[in-house]
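Deviation from plan, reported transparently: IPE complex.
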Amino acid sequence: MRAVQARMESCLAAALPPAKVAPARLHEAMRYASLDGGKRVRPLLVFAAGEVSQSAPERLEIAAAAVELIHTYSLVHDDLPCMDDDTLRRGKATTHIEFDQATALLVGDSLQSLAFQILSERPVAESAQTQLEMIALLARAIGSRGMAGGQAIDLASIDKTLSVPELEFMHIHKTGALIRAAVMLGAHCCRALTQDELKALDSYAKWVGLAFQVVDDILDARETTATLGKTAGKDAQANKPTYVSIMGPLGARTLAQELHEKALAALRLFDAKANRLREIAEFILNRSN
Ligand code: IPE
Ligand code: IPE
Ligand code: MG
Ligand code: MG
Ligand code: MG
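Because the crystal trials were delayed, the predicted structure below was used instead.
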């Protein structure tokens, strides 16, 4: 885990424009938001899926960096006053607090653009066609029918009670879609997997992606700001429907465990090559931030 985190840090540091190059304030803010923080769960998933497809780390790190840049953009925007209005992220002031709102908006735009730039400019797959498929896969995952759509539903749900299927729909989009893309990108970096193998990985990613947000909701309600590195209790404060508000902390925990088991079951057809994916599922369930 630490090896992937360190590799991500240096890969992102190299991919991001230097802080002194104009427009310096924007570049400084992009680096501030992206470097020195975050668990790098999505890059870990890219690398772990890459063990199944036996991909070269040099390719995986590019796909992983692209996903992490998208994730970071989503956090910078998620924290803006017009969205969740948060002041703390990854143990530091949020980007719009450290800089300003317009800069934070542009940081998000620029990180998103950089992600697609590196995913298209650098070699990440066996063929140009596979690479194009990977770019399309990421684009689909984060648009209005993926992550951004999920965020829209999240904001429209304030002060409302959602049914469990509605909540699941929201979580699968706002958080699950990018996590799913991370696994599928890692799977596409090298050896062509069979349709059954791809389906199994996609199913694993779907359950793990949903579990990730269920646990995020649990932690928001249970942990302290110091442990989370972001303000605790925000969901209840903003009156957002979450698995905790709808099922209670115990119901949410039971669900997270069931999702974890479904994720492991989806990996049945793989041998030890999928052990990293199994370990990450465990980490996602038992993490404390
Ligand atoms: C937080 O994601 C936002 C969600 C999608 C739930 P992470 O918990 O992966 O945040 P970092 O990257 O570690 O800060
Ligand atoms: C964030 O969900 C989802 C995305 C950024 C796409 P949350 O709003 O629950 O994330 P935190 O709790 O602020 O990290
Ligand atoms: Mg949010
Ligand atoms: Mg938020
Ligand atoms: Mg949250």
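Residues 21 and 149 are 34 Å apart (CA to CA). We consider this an acceptable substitute for the interim report.
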